[in-house]
Design a protein that fits this description.
Pfam families: Myosin_N (PF02736). The protein is of the alpha+beta class. It has 2 helices and 4 strands. It has 2 domains: about 30 residues, no CATH class; about 40 residues, SH3 type barrels (Roll). Strands 1-2-3-4 form a 4-stranded antiparallel beta sheet, with no helix packed on it.
Length: about 70
Amino acid sequence: MSHFLDMAEFGEAARYLRLTNLEQLAAKAIAFDGTKRVWMPDDVQAYVEVEVKELNGDKTTVETKEGRVSSS
């Protein structure tokens, strides 16, 4: 599985410790646009990924994956 670690020593748990090739490919196919998607500090989770919806001077409106909208 990995060139750096012999996953066989983890036995049955090995499949939970590493993404399959198909999962890795799917993760790489998702584009992360740093000008549209950014990380924002959050009180519950340390940071959450948000999408910039509007830039208006010093004001920015963002939306989380859960649909929460925030302006600052």
